[in-house]
Amino acid sequence: MQKKETILPRISSRRTFVKQTGLAAAAGMLAPSLFAQQPGSFRKTNAYLIENRLEAGTSILRGYIGGRLDQCFQQDILTKNFDHLVAPFRNRAETNLWQSEFWGKCMMAAVLAYQYQPDPQLKIKIDAAVAGLIATQTVDGYIGNYSAQARLKQWDIWGMKYCLLGLLEYFDLTNDKKSLDAAEKLTGYLMGEINRQGGKIVDKGNYRGMAASSVLLPVVRLSVATGNKQYLDFAEEIVKQWETPDGPQLIAKSATDVSKRFPRPKQWYSPEQGQKAYEMMSCYEGLLALYRLTGKDVYKQAVLNVFENIQDTEINIAGSGASAEMWFGGRERQTTPVYHYQETCVTVTWMQLCMALLKLTGDAKYAHAIETTYYNALMAALKSDGSTWAKYTPLNGERLPGSGQCGMDLNCCSANGPRGLFAVPGLVAMSSRDGITVNFFMEGTTAVRSPRGKRVKLVQTTDYPVSGKIAIRLEMNAPENMVLQVRIPGWSRQTLLLVNGTAYADVVPGAYAALERKWKTGDTISLELDMCGRVKVMGDQHRYFALLYGPLVLCRDTRFSGTNPGTVITPLNLNEPYPGFKKAAATADHCWVQLEAPFETENYKEQRDPPVTATFCDYASAGNGATASTFQTWMPLIFNAAKPG
Questions:
Q1: How large is the average pLDDT for residues 552-562?
Q2: Is the peptide bond before 577 cis (omega within 30 degrees of 0)?
Q3: CATH classification of 431-528, choosing from 3.40.1130, 3.40.50, 2.60.40, 1.10.3470?
Q4: N or C: which end of the chain has fewer CB within 10 A?
């Protein structure tokens, strides 16, 4: 489908920010009995108390990333059978499975894909999918797949959460009142049913109440969309219950290692399990939204704490983690084979948490984290033809497809993967009160708004990360004084930044370069990043190394000719930068970036042989060709007893 070049950011009046000094005071704690809807609740126009620093732009991407988006759009998004996803809501016979999450995840992905590429065919599918779901709503407001006797058990509230998120995304897209009314009726049913079943949400469902209470995020969004204070009260009560002995204690334990918060349960997948990665991060995403609504700093600090802890103890070299869906102290264990590693749902939810923090704070470290995850763990999960997603992605081994779940033809990860893929185009360049922020370097065009509300178009020309050369040209209706920030990756030690051909001296790795001037049409920014190879070594007695190139993790792959991947190779030195990286003479099928570099080998001779050339590709392409292959990210360092240490 041909995309139009005239693009403007989507502006929603619900996302304009008005300081409301009385809002935080109104956010008191509730008794459980107040979960039920009360007569005479007031309605008013509401807004977040705390502004986001950065607001999304609208991008049309080309190059490799644009191609992957187009593949997924055609082979995955447009092929989704929403009638198949609605069927469980008509039957309402479930007692323990999670079919009800699939509709919401696929709807959120479809809306993001439509915002990226407004295809009429997709809009027809989205409209029909929403109408189909709303048609299943019962008189009492319930939308779900559970039998009357099993309501609120297992994954029922979790499924309601995703229905609410899908309905709210559709409302934001279309301003369709029927979808908002359906969301309100469903939330009213949920609050009333919780009240009828004892007033507690943290004893419903799985994982110390995290699955059920992650409904916090859509409840906050519903409060903003309607101005109904009851939803704010419901949100506050959920958080209050987190801190009870039966709850996940997400605030009190926010600085505790996420893998060590509770004793290991007898059964791994059980209500007592407190280390469930996906559900935990979903709760913190809701807590950050509640912070923006109330201004309560304790909520924000808890999310900042958990980000740092997950980054420090769990996230691996490819930007994701978790074993069998739980946090396990995985950062230090990533060199060994890990069972059911890097669930794609964990990958996407980590990105969602980082995105929310980036928008709120404007801190470059969250953009760094997103870039690592997007180019490596997420892209690796997307099949080479764009048709489906892996459920798990090992660092060494092979890419294997996931299987259907709950008697359906998709699983949680194949539904979730496109949400991460299509979220990033809106973050390439973003608007702020002071100007524009460029987070990511992708071939294409991004439209944003200037501080004075004027249209600005940024045109990027680049093959990044094949090379580090990026050119950005501005198109504006009128000149304007503002700050244009450009993110400098932390790994780029020597960066050349030019504005209209003049070098900019104040370039700090890992931060934004703030370019303040009167910008006009035709102004250019040129960036040359330091793409030298880097070596990362892990382990004590058993040592391993991995190679990086820009934001990419590199791998050996059995598809490549030349040095056998079974041959033990040793880096010429373990210091950065690693010498000798160059483009491979020939490129294998479905390979984004393919490089060669010299290494030593164990030759069993008294003299050393000359270095051999080994071939590597980016992690996303490894094992992801048209034919099956195996790959290595972490490679053993040969042990030499003759050398000290």
A1: 90
A2: yes
A3: 2.60.40
A4: C
